[in-house]
Amino acid sequence: MEFIKPGTNYDFVGKMKYAIIFSAVLILISIGSVIIRGGLNLGIDFAGGTIVQVKFQKKISADEIRAALKSTSLENSIIQQFGTNEFLIRTAESLHEQELLNENVQKPLTAVFQQDYEIRRVEVVGSKVGMDFQRKAIFAVIVSWLAMLIYIAWRFEFRYGLGGIIAIIHDVLIIIGTISILKIEFTISILAALFFIIGFSINDTIVVLDRIRENVKLHARRKLADLINLSINQTLSRTILTSLTVFLTVLSLYFFGGPVIHDLALALLVGVIVGTYSSIFIACTIVLYFENFQLTGMKRK
């Protein structure tokens, strides 16, 4: 099945300058959002604290729950609706003992709502454990970038590896910016989404870069810009089919998967779009610019 007819020749290289400007603006907005907000909205996996998931049998508001907890240490906690008559109570305190949970959650809720509620989940993470998770997460992402750069540079050429890694960094920064702007909580699930997009993006990118490498060997006398256009057009049908299949799958999860995976699905949706875009406009642009930079250096010599 092909969306793009054979012989089609869209001028992607001619649009790359505009794409670079567009990406630069998105990255600046992403970094600016993180700085202005003082960092990401870290979940308890990374920041430490306690999450209590409570389901009520009748319709109530977050203000009623906050009023019930007014005399406890959870008075200033974050209370977020989570489905129908269900709420998440988030606090920076670690209620690791059952006695603390009883005093700060069960007793005050029972006093106001009697037995018309059910505590469905309690997650507790210490602050030291959260900091350790942060370090390990950052280390894992950076190591994945370096490992792929080394492999692609060894398997193909350095310019292809550089293009692939910069495309991945581009994707990660924009996803993090989206999370920051929308105030999505950064949890283990979001970290898993980042790793998925890293794998998805580099796989899509390698297909395009490998075709460029093949065409360079077959048409050694043609300009690299022409070969990049040729290669993108040759793989465009495959790129659209792959990305569209993943996008529709994730879209269904976003609408029908429920609130538990809502943020995860949103991060994946953004990642699939950005990853497909970067495979064409970022990775290939870096390959072209790197080639021009080398040629300029040779002429000066």
Word description of this protein:
With 301 residues, this protein is an alpha+beta fold. It folds into two domains: 202 residues, Multidrug efflux transporter AcrB transmembrane fold (Up-down Bundle), CATH 1.20.1640; 77 residues, 2-Layer Sandwich (Alpha-Beta Plaits), CATH 3.30.70.3400. Helix content is 67%, strand content 9%. The protein contains ten helices and four strands. It has a four-stranded antiparallel sheet.
Set out the fold topology.
Blueprint: H1 16-36, H2 44-47, E1 49-56, H3 62-68, E2 78-81, E3 86-91, H4 98-113, E4 117-125, H5 127-155, H6 158-181, H7 188-218, H8 224-256, H9 262-281, H10 283-300
Antiparallel strand pairs: 1-3, 1-4, 2-3
Helix pairs in contact: 1-6, 5-6, 5-7, 6-7, 6-9, 6-10, 7-8, 7-9, 8-9
CATH superfamily of the largest domain: Multidrug efflux transporter AcrB transmembrane domain
Largest sheet: 4 strands, antiparallel
The CATH class of the largest domain is identified as: Mainly Alpha
- In CATH, the architecture of the largest domain is Up-down Bundle
Number of DSSP strand runs: 4
Head-to-tail CA distance between termini = 49 Å
Give the CA-based shape. elongated
CATH fold descriptor of the largest domain: Multidrug efflux transporter AcrB transmembrane fold
Helix content: 55-70%
Task: Give the radius of gyration.
Answer: 24 Å
Strand proportion, as a percent range, falls in 5-15%
Unreliable stretches: none
Find the structural class using helix and strand composition: alpha+beta
- Kindly report the spatial arrangement of strands forming the biggest sheet: 2-3-1-4
Sequence of secondary-structure elements? HHEHEEHEHHHHHH
Number of domains: 2
Mean pLDDT: 83
Q: Number of helical segments? A: 10
